[in-house]
Amino acid sequence: MNLRARQAEDPEVNLTSLIDVVLLLLVFFMVSTSFVRESELKIELPQTTEAGPREESIAEPLEITVTAEGGYLLDQKELINSRPDTLRRAIIRTYGDDRDRPVTIRADARASHQSVVTAMDVAGRLGFVSIRIATVNEGP
Questions:
Q1: Backbone angles phi, psi at 79, to 5 degrees
Q2: pTM score
Q3: Fold adopted by 62-133
Q4: pLDDT category, 54, cuts 50, 70, 90?
Q5: What is the pLDDT of residues 84-94, one digit of tens each?
């Protein structure tokens, strides 16, 4: 019988597999990270000029009114129906190729959102770039 105590061996730590796992995790996170660029809103701020007020006349805005029933009025004149094609033809007949004129859309409080968006879409497709929505501030 051998009663002598064995010599304790020093534990060996193998770092090779640990380094491999860390590098794999690093590569995984680098590849899976998405670099999303947040959407930006371009705002054009008004600029002042040194010159005096303009003497040229400012064009009257084209006014589209949306009624509660979803009908359209072009410059306070009622259209025969509420189809977008009718609105488009009325704008072309009334204003021709004058696309520099601003468009103001007024809507009844009970008008459907779809009717207002349709009016905006018709004006935008015709090439009008200055489209405004008129609002009413009610007192307390």
A1: -90, 160
A2: 0.56
A3: Nucleotidyltransferase; domain 5 (3.30.420)
A4: low
A5: 999 999 989 98
